[in-house]
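Example with several molecule types.
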Amino acid sequence: DIQMTQSPSTLSASVGDRVTITCRASQSISSWLAWYQQKPGKAPKLLIYKASSLESGVPSRFSGSGSGTEFTLTISSLQPDDFATYYCQQYNSYPFTFGPGTKVDIK
Amino acid sequence: EVQLVESGGGLVQPGGSLRLSCAASGFTFSSYWMSWVRQAPGKGLEWVANIKQDGSEKYYVDSVKGRFTISRDNAKNSLYLQMNSLRAEDTAVYYCARSHYYDSSLDYWGQGTLVTVSS
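Resulting structure tokens for the full complex:
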């Protein structure tokens, strides 16, 4: 199975900050990577698919990059609505696997 | 508007069975792969299984193989997860999710249904 890791596990930031989360795969997954945002008690929400494609309706302050084994999610200017947990997921091969999550909280 | 509504969760004893359902609306259900994803209390997300549009292909995470069965009824716009031989570690919120039109990312999710396995 492909193992996904994320760093950091927790990130404290302020509104307006530029935030970067890293996701690494244990083997190459090409660009088959998605990023999700989850708030407490809610279902995850798709932000980015195929590593860098912005899902419809998602604000342009979110961007994704990378390929192979290393990927990043960047929030260019953190907004109050962005405090949440972020997960990456590979869908290059079965079983699809998620990273452990990165919690973005208020500094 | 795309809607996915799960049902069927509840409290079940270890070794018991439960069938989850997911009612889909607002899109052509028969045109999309569908998945189940779970989240244990206070933990991260775990992909459980998915199924092709016509039901001809199904994939599972190893921890549920032989115990869980994913299925669908395109005439009823419904997705199912039959869970047998349940264990305490299966306790989680189970989400139904639709695969993106372009790839296997998950673009719409239901609100989830809680399954608790406990004596």
